[in-house]
Amino acid sequence: MGLLGAILLNNRAFERVSEFLSEEHFSEEFHRRIWRACKTLIERGQRADPTTLRHFFESDEVYRAIGGAAYVARLAANATTVINAADYGRLIHDLSIRRELIELGTDIVNDAFSGDLEVSAVDQIENAEQNLYDLATTGSYEGGFRSLTAAVADAVDMAQAAFRREGKTVGVPSGFTELDLMLGGLHKSDLLVLAGRPSMGKTALATNIAFHVAEAAAEAAETGPGTASGAGKAPPAVGFYSLEMSAEQLANRLVAEQTKISSDKIRRGELNESQFERLVVASRKLEGLAFFIDDTPALTTSALRTRARRLKRQHGLALLVVDYLQLVSGSRNARNDSRVQEVSEITRGLKTLAKELDVPVLALSQLSRAVENREDKRPQLADLRESGTIEQDADVVMFIYREEYYLERQEPSRRADEEAAKFLERQEQWEDRRSKAEGRAEVIVAKQRHGPTGRVVLRFHPEMTKFENLNEAREAPY
Known about the structure:
The chain is α/β, with parallel strands linked by helices and 478 residues long. The chain has two domains: 2-137, Orthogonal Bundle (DNAb Helicase, Chain A); 189-392, Rossmann fold, CATH 3.40.50.300. It has 20 helices and nine strands. It has a nine-stranded mixed β-sheet, sandwiched between helices. A hairpin with a 5-residue loop joins strand 7 (440-448) and strand 8 (454-461). It is elongated and about 105 Å long. Residues 226-231 and 472-478 have low confidence and may be disordered.
């Protein structure tokens, strides 16, 4: 009553609370109506006072039942000052959240007692976490405009940190020198999409990047300033959603990368004593990293967000990887729409998550078959499968292309009417191209919101699913 009265006496009080307060925060229905009427008048540029409000409620039975104009006049008489309006508004906001917490707690108890077998206990926990998070963030009065002075100061701090850093990167280093030079590292709050056709090495590259980030975080924690007890600060975690492969398969790839032993040999157990010792040493190193894998199939965007928030709350977060985008499930409403709209909702959700958690999110994506029908099979932005808003929402779009993969499947055969010399010439040309392409992989940066596009050449070892730096200059812009 005090806040509404202050607004009726001086409409500037509305400006102090309208950013975080809405009609839902009032417990009394008629107070909600008065707030809504004041909001409508003020946003029209008109004055909201007891006289102007009378026209809104002349035929309202509830208005007459509580005393009509006399009640509104009493509100004005009980008004707080404009200076105290913000404090009153925050108190109303806080008490409203407390009421919703009570209601949410009641719903959790009732759902747990309901015995609905279609909804598991884990799903109920995730729904409760989601509702709690929504309650904590909806209507928050923090944020708003920042001055250019503060934004420029942050930008200078970032540039200074990059200047002092050996790799000259602003973001999180990926571990690949040329790629970091082009991207400036993986920037916080960015959505990076890594796309390619099957067998190009998307998961391998994402796994390599995730390992480099986790390793760098662990090293920084060891060499950084210690706590009062002398122990280093725990490194932020890397979260890897593996919707296609199991956690064991992904771990097998990481072990193969570190030991330089074929992942097939590790899986079959075809190791000698020396190789097994290397495997034990590598496994101990991996166990010390803050690297977390979630291999739950068909995760929804809601569950993905909930688990990412939980991981950051418990361990901190340096990078989030989603392998891959088309295997994520949208909301139930999106599933009723087209697949393009569902994928669009997923990419928007991932971009929002990147900004909310202030970490880079690396999402893998499949490409359409249109690539296979062209002579030059280098991917283009138009090849993004179910692209919808993938290109629009992503801050960076990268493609992996390995010419070697296609050349191995295009070995020339002699035509019926072809001379032997001509066939041998074609075969020599094919072998020369295959030799030059052997072990080479191109990472094509086709879109970058913050910088240039171009190509980076890496060395790829398919038997170890490992990418390495190739000491070659960046090629011409793509």
